[in-house]
Structure formats: C-alpha cells, structure tokens
Amino acid sequence: MPNTDAVIDISHNNGNINLASAQQVGILGVIHKATQGTTFADPMYQANLAQAQQLGLLWGAYHFGNGDDGVAQATFFLNTVQPQAGTLLVLDFESNPASSTMSLQEARDFVSHVQAQTGIWPGLYGGSYLKEQLGSTPDPILQNCWFWLAQYGPTAVLPPGWDHWTLWQYLDGAIVKDPNPIPGITPCDRNYYCDTPATLQAKWAAGSLA
Are 198 and 111 in contact (CB under 8 A)? Predict the structure, then answer.
C-alpha cells in the first residue's frame, strides 16, 4: 500500500506560517498543538485554524500531556478546541524534560474521557518513551487509539498493542533535515499516512484515522 506524505504537525514554535504555500506543494492535513497540561493553550492555534479553514485543509488538534490529572487535561483540551466535525484529536504522549511527564494511567484517563465525550477514540502519538513505559505488555485501553509513530529513521518499530502505524513522523526538519522543505513552514515535522490520499481525506472527514 502506498504511503501518503501530505500531513504536517506544527505549534506556536513554528512562528508565523503560510499554509497556502504548504498546500501548493501537496500538503492535505495539518495537526496543530492546542493545549498542554491543564493551563497552556497554544497562542497560534486559532489563527492557524482560520488559515486552514479558508484553504479547505484537513485539520487536527493535539494535546501535549504532562503529569496533571488525565481527565482534567482532557477536559481542558476539549473545552479549548471545541472540536467540530472532521477535527482530528490526538494525545501527544512523550517525555517532558521541562516539567512533569504524563504517566500511562494519566494517558488512559485522558483518551477514555475524550472517547466518552466525543464517541471517538483519539489518536495516540508516541515513540521511545511510550515503548519504555509499555515494555512488552500491550495496554488494553491505549490500544483502542489509532497509532501515530514518532521515529526518525528508515525502519518503523512499533510498541506492543499495534500491528501497524497510521501516521509516522519520520523527520522534523531540524534534527533530521528535510530534503524537500515545506515553503512557508521551515523547518516542520513531516508525516507519512499509511494509505492513499483519498482514504486519508475520507477517514479524516469522519474524525478518526482508525
């Protein structure tokens, strides 16, 4: 099955961006940081959402988890995003060297609350930290989420509980240079989708890549 290289993820750290330029080189979907913990809302989220809506780009929102209560984080995320039909929702589960780091239980509570409120399991973004926490044991709650792999390198290595990745963040443009930088957003994270552009668009419009 072909992989579709048409999804980027961004945050306020990308500064002022030009999504029209990104669209012109084939970008179909944008996943933007919305919140972190229970108090931080990304200051560029609404402005970049407005850009994406004007252009007809697919839109998603992610929450960067920390050590706060998982349900409280999910509530803050949903209240901030106010997701509409077709808004992709994702939990970013990774080590946080600047502050407290989300635990597996907090992640379970987060994704379960999102599912209870929206009827859809969010995506789960993870890499080495997730693999360390899981060890060799699949998690019966987290594995309900479609999986977004964070791994820079030629070979995908999955954590237990998933038999395939749905999105694969394969470079960030900084640690791993992008041979074809996105105009208007340089550097930025690049992601493969596991199927065709038509399937990406159809599933995203339904609010889940599962």
Answer: no
Answer whether residue 210 is part of any domain: no
Structure confidence by residue, pLDDT tens digits, 13-51: 999 999 999 999 999 999 999 999 999 999 999 999 999
In a domain, 94, yes or no: yes
Compute the distance between CA of residue 44 and CA of residue 202 in angstroms, rounded to an integer. 27
C-alpha distances out from residue 137 to 43, 76, 102, Å: 37, 30, 18
Question: Which neighbouring-strand residues pair with 91?
Answer: 63, 124
Write out 190-206 in H/E/C secondary structure: EEEECCCHHHHHHHHHC
Closest CA to 64 of 20, 25, 31, 28: 31
Its pTM stands at 0.96
In a domain, 76, yes or no: yes
Among 159, 164, 166, 108, which Cα is nearest to 136's? 159
